[in-house]
């Protein structure tokens, strides 16, 4: 690593995969900017990481559904002379139910958090990375972006497929400038995700071998972006599912997706 203490910005650092990224990067000697809405969680994590690793932690409580949040965050960091070397676009959630069951405002906020905020953060932070000849961008996508869309959680797979394609283009444009971009694609991961979406009971019926720990996902993600891998699906079972989804005809894929949707998705 070319820098003594890289500065990593992690969104969604108050829980799950984002908190695990913060812990893993602090252990690797990074300083941190932590972003999420729950300030108390971010401050508690910051105290732990300062004590454990001597990490400089900048806590930035923000709602990424606010369209002005990425610009305000980047302007504040620049004003403090903080240059971001690693961007982990991780904040996310799901909206259960069918498309018409939620108000437009719910979908608009989802698109802002899952698509626009990560895209804008990359756009704002990339020039500094390129100028310094070093940068890492991890876009936390999902296995859902590789398999056919489901009924219910209508925008989720679409948003993750976008992140995968966006990461591929960004990686190709920037790899000659020392900036690695990786779409990290976990499958089912132990975190607060399914509690927030209210689907814990439904996904609790899935076999245990499909589940990964957030720490495992993060270890794979850090290794993948470091070696310059552009898309990384975590875990053997998830890689097998992705490979199968590519092999089978679309009609069979959609039939399977409809069957799984009835079992594991909230459809009202
Ligand atoms: N868990 C899985 O099975 C799974 C599988 C594949 C991909 N993923 C992806 O992994 C990422 C992390 O999810 P997770 O599993 O770690 O879920 P999680 O435990 O629920 O954590 C989600 C994080 O996103 C933050 N967040 C949500 N809305 C936000 C907003 N409006 N503004 C700022 N921060 C916001 C939350 O913080 P606050 O509530 O404090 O704002 C929290 O820190 C997501 O992008 C998710 O789609 C998860």
From TrEMBL:
The keyword Nucleotide-binding does not apply. Keywords: Oxidoreductase. It comes from the Bacteria. InterPro entries: NAD(P)-bd_dom_sf, SDR_fam. GO terms for molecular function: oxidoreductase activity. It is an enzyme of class 1 (oxidoreductase). Coiled coil: none annotated. Its EC number is 1.-.-.-. PANTHER family: DEHYDROGENASE/REDUCTASE SDR FAMILY MEMBER 7B (PTHR44196), SHORT-CHAIN DEHYDROGENASE-RELATED (PTHR44196:SF2). Belongs to the short-chain dehydrogenases/reductases (SDR) family. This is SDR family oxidoreductase.
